[in-house]
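The instructor's notes for this session suggest beginning with a concrete chain rather than abstract definitions. Hand out the sequence below and ask the class to guess, before any prediction is shown, which regions might be ordered.
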Amino acid sequence: MNTHAAYQTPKAVKIFDSGLDTIIVAIVMFLLAFSLYATWDTDQMHNNAMSDQYTIYNPAEDPLSFAELRALNPDVFGWITVYGTMIDFPLLQGTNNSHYLNHNALGEHSLAGAIFLDADNDPNFTDFNSIIHGHHMDQGAMFGNIDLFADREFFDSRKYGNLMFNDKDHGLEFFAFVETSGYNWQVFNPAVQGRDNQQAYVNMLIETALHTRDIGPITPDDNIVLLATCTNEFTNGRHLLVAKLHDTPFPNPFAEGEAAELERSTFVDGQLLPILRQICFPALLIVAVLVIAYWTIQKRRRWSFEDTWDKVKHEPAVREHYEKLCKEGAKAKTAVKPPAAPGTPVVPSPPQTTAK
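After discussion, reveal the predicted structure:
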């Protein structure tokens, strides 16, 4: 008798596969939950690093509030603003250059850090060259807008800033944008001494700069300020925006009307990354969960058909009908037949009877 045995998934395989499915779904759900938490945590960090968080302490708005900030953290000694960008932050100085990499202006632990003057510089800005450090962050947080000066048009349209210290405003006039390595100790050498060394230092900055602006000669009698931040252009890369320090402040050309709106909306760096973090990655994980769930349901359905066939195939009427189909040869291949491994099982139709 030519009969075909139906394929049956071993029970041990089903148990193992079910356990594996559970583990996979659990891992994907954990990744989904972790990604949502990471997205929320990252956004919180960026929100806390935006200049808007410090507006209430801005001495230009309320000197008393700035005094309150200094009372909260005595390391706060000034304020820095770059006109036409979102750089508008308290200025601090610690006893080393590590503390404010992960502490904010309130003295709280924060991965966004703070804007701080190099520990080897004089807070009265009497040194020939003073270096101010800050993290590069997307959405324009901290020194996240400095790399925008790599664009010549942006550099040409942003000429001035303001530096407040000793309760007095001073002007910043930007004349160079430099891209260099964090290992370049010739550049990262605060408070250069000796007139020849000082002149060589500023000449080196101008010669290696991506962009420069002619503001007249820079001599050892001047004071220059470098705003330094990281860049992803190359390993351990740094961007520096270099300014001449003036005793008198410059008016802010972006203070009113359309220019102010342009400052806050058009030139905000890193808009794409937050969208990817907030939408795409969680969406991909959700799709993965749905695909795994669909695949698992389809597999369970196949197993259910297999189990159903295993139960009914030994019934006399079903067996008789099945043997009849097998004898029909080629015709039986197009008829309903029991499941074949590893396809989708189909329960054969019951045998037809003729009325007597």
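Then share the key points. The mean pLDDT is 80. DSSP finds eight helices and nine strands in the chain.
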